[in-house]
Amino acid sequence: MIAFVAIAASSCKLDAPVYPIAEKPPEVVKPDTTTIPDAGPDSFYTVPIGALNTIVFKIDDGENVTLTEPTADITPNNGSATTGYTMVLADQVSPEVTFKLNFSAARAGEFADDLLWLIYKDFRLTDDSSGKVKAVIVRKDTNGYLVKGYFRILATNDNDGTLHTVIGSFNVSK
After folding, report:
1. What is the pTM of this model?
2. pLDDT at 174
3. ∠ at Cα 116 (63, 108), nearest 5°?
4. CA torsion, ordered 161, 42, 67, 74, to nearest 10 deg
5. At CA 104, angle to CA 99 and CA 106, rounded to 5?
6. Which residue spans within the chain are E strands per DSSP?
7. So what's the pLDDT on residue 12?
8. So which domain of life are we looking at (predicted)?
9. Pick from 168, 152, 127, 148: which is nearest to 74 by CA?
10. What does the buried/exposed string (b/e) look like for 20-54 if buried means 16 or more CB atoms within 10 Å of the residue's CB?
11. Where are the alpha helices (DSSP H) in the chain?
């Protein structure tokens, strides 16, 4: 009987361990909490930041125009946008205004603008990317975003070729 137990025990073979299939962890959006001090308007950025969810701008030394339903889109730096990308947009019916401002960054700092497109009154303004954007807050997390800052851009009126300075600020949250 001892021989039988020894034969039975020696003929058992252990299987290789089976581990669970590795699951990809859920993607976590890391909040960007970068800010820079906001000293308020200065001699270059002269239009103060408006109330939450506004864009305020003026053309040359004209009146301040306030857009009250802006949106923003922040693309973090990744394979398709190496520096990140921020876009601030607004369409308004009265007065009729179409506004689009882009800059290649997804963080606070001062940057060259990539695009301003503005239709307002008899202005149809586009720029040559020679302006500046000062973003004091660019923050995106799983709950939304906050984009706050200033811009100053020299733009051409496509209707007649004249140059105009567009100065403004943005304060957009979702």
Report:
1. 0.74
2. 84
3. 95
4. 90
5. 95
6. 54-59, 65-67, 71-75, 85-92, 97-103, 109-120, 123-127, 132-141, 144-157, 163-173
7. 57
8. Bacteria
9. 148
10. eeeeeeeeeeeebeeeeeeeeeeeebebebbeebb
11. 2-10
In whole angstroms, give the CA distance from residue 157 to residue 101: 16
Tokens matching residue 80: 């398709």
Structure tokens given for 67: 């857009």
Give the type of residue at 80.
S
Q: What is the largest CA-CA distance in the chain?
A: 108
Give the 3-state secondary structure of residue 35.
Answer: strand
| Sequential pLDDT tens for the chain (174 residues) | 555 555 555 555 566 655 555 554 444 444 455 566 666 777 788 899 999 999 999 999 999 999 999 998 888 776 665 677 888 999 988 888 999 988 888 888 888 877 788 888 888 888 766 788 899 988 877 778 899 999 998 888 888 989 999 999 999 998
